[in-house]
Amino acid sequence: MTEPVLRVQDLAVYFSSRTGSLLRREERVLRAVDGISFDLNPGETLGIVGESGSGKSTLARAILGLLSPNRGRVLWMGEDLTRLEAEPMRQKRKELQIVFQDPVASLNPRMTAGSIIAEPLWTFYPQMESLQVEERTRGMMKMVGLLPNQINRYPHEFSGGQCQRIGIARSLVLNPKLLICDEPVSALDVSIQAQIINLLRDLQKKLGLALIFVAHDLSIVRHISDRVMVMYMGRSMEVAEKTALYRRPLHPYSRALMKSVLIPDPVRAREVKQEVWLKGDMPSPFSPPRGCIFHSRCPYQVPRCQADVPALRRMENGNWVACHRAEELDLSI
Amino acid sequence: MARMKMAGDALANDPFAAAFATQDIQGRSLWIDAWHRLLKNRAAVASGSTMFLMVLAVVFGPMLSPWAPDFTDWEHTASPPSLVNGHWFGTDAVGRDILVRTLEGGRISLLVGLVATLVSLVIGVSYGSVAGYYGGVTDRMMMRIVDIIYALPFMFFVILLMVVFGRHIILIFVAIGAVNWLDMARIVRGQTLGLKNTEFVEAAQACGVSDKAIIVRHIVPNLLGVVMVYVTLTIPHVILVESFLSFLGLGVQEPMSSWGALVNDGAQDMESSPWTLIFPATFLAVTLYCFNYIGDGMRDALDPKDRV
């Protein structure tokens, strides 16, 4: 067994919002991420899926220390990132990088592609000669499939897919060991999505990166991940090997997600008869249901679900699930 | 990867593509785009050219004039504009040439406008971006200080300065600059608040870029557009404030002059010799119009989305 590079333990991020008048202040707490734990092995890809507002992006930012968590630990190579001072944490940023959702918004419109990619180098290697920086920048551009002679162009002169390649080049220029992709393709055309996903996968193999891939598109997660974590309202419902999850999910919510994937073949879609499985909307995050957070929408709920919070526990096949009835239910797809 | 292969194929049989793929392509920055849009705005170009001529005139005009600004021509006191006696714009009650005095006054007025705006630009941008970027307690403290200074009555402040230090041109710069950077700081802070939550700033933070570099490299260049528009609108405002001070007799002192002071003098002789009022007032008004048109044009050029 290899040691995991990243261990996230009981991580929680709360946002508070004040409402009401000056005299009657009410403080409401939104539990964006509430007690998430998982391990990530070197070279492994963990997919994180869930509906909008389930806390996926918040989790990604909390791991990188862009948000400070209220509770829990982020162990990177055995070192707790949440306790690091500013400067040691800054040094760690060489190893942990992120690719953002909106490729255009994540690039400074006033900087050229070259300076965007080179900025991490300027930051961490200020003594590096400019010729060397340029050479490395051109190398990175080539690696992510951009023409190096476009080094002096500005973001608005590139397409969305190309902008995302610039973003990927920037995140890889420091040779990180972990790359977090926060919905890297959801803003792109479908045809470009495949290019970017394959690029990420190729680069991951070539560079031996550990990858956390946040997405709400289940087919993409299936394509790229080794393991998948299913999140719902800031908690993890299931962490499972990809094949197991997509064949026989253990959590009713996972099944609901899997069943909601559209089948791009009208004939087969008719045969399968797509059922709408999820009732209603996600409850208000300010007043989450008691007990199992999913019980208000779960077709299998029993009285116990309203009373006890199910712990994330390990099943026989090695996967993790947070459901009281995981053993008795057969949720095969 | 596929793109690279395609580029490679094209290289083999197309010399033009070969040149295209090897030579660096010069990008067009947003600044250059905005500049080209500005050049298409006729009002802005006309105003810009007029201001250019105006600056040339006030800088070099007095050197070419046969009259010194404080020279008293006793033979032609209160002379109307005349080509014959050489006083094209006429003279005032003590026989000083209005043309050369208007140009001299323009030097002071434009200088005040430029320097005071520049001071408020430097202080306002650095102060506002720091307050906005750090946020929280720092922001609240810094902006409360701005509020306090803002609450001081401006005229009271100027009169106090004059009483304590005596009348001096530098004091006008100080007084106007001290008040104008407050607006600038507020505008810049507001812009910074919006910018600091953008993904590219977050990306820079994730790359470990220092706060100082983020402000200088990511925040300030992206709010400079708004700031530049504000600057072009501040310059005429400052000129007007200086004119107002001079009009009240708190501004520049004789024999120096400014447009405001000249308008004040002219207004007193308005009935007997209206040209002493008309010429400086026209110069002042034209300048204010020009800056406003330039500001308008810049706003359209820098933010093409807003244009209807």
Q: CATH first level of chain A: which class? A: Alpha Beta
Low-confidence stretches of chain B: 1-11
Helix percent of chain A reads 25-40%
Task: Summarize model confidence as the mean pLDDT of chain A.
Answer: 87
Q: Report the strand count of chain A.
A: 12
What would you call the shape of chain A? globular
CATH architecture descriptor of chain B:
Orthogonal Bundle
Tally of contiguous helical segments of chain B: 12
Distance from first to last alpha carbon of chain A: 31 Å
Q: What's the CATH topology name of chain B?
A: MetI-like fold
- Distance from N terminus to C terminus of chain B (CA atoms, Å) equals 42 Å
Give a quick account of the main beta sheet of chain B: strands, pairing sense, barrel closure: none
Describe the largest sheet of chain A: 8 strands, mixed
Radius of gyration of chain B: 26 Å
Percent in strands of chain B: under 5%
What is the global morphology of chain B?
globular
Please give the order of strands in the largest beta sheet of chain A: 6-7-8-3-9-10-12-11
Number of domains of chain B: 1
Backbone CA Rg of chain A: 21 Å
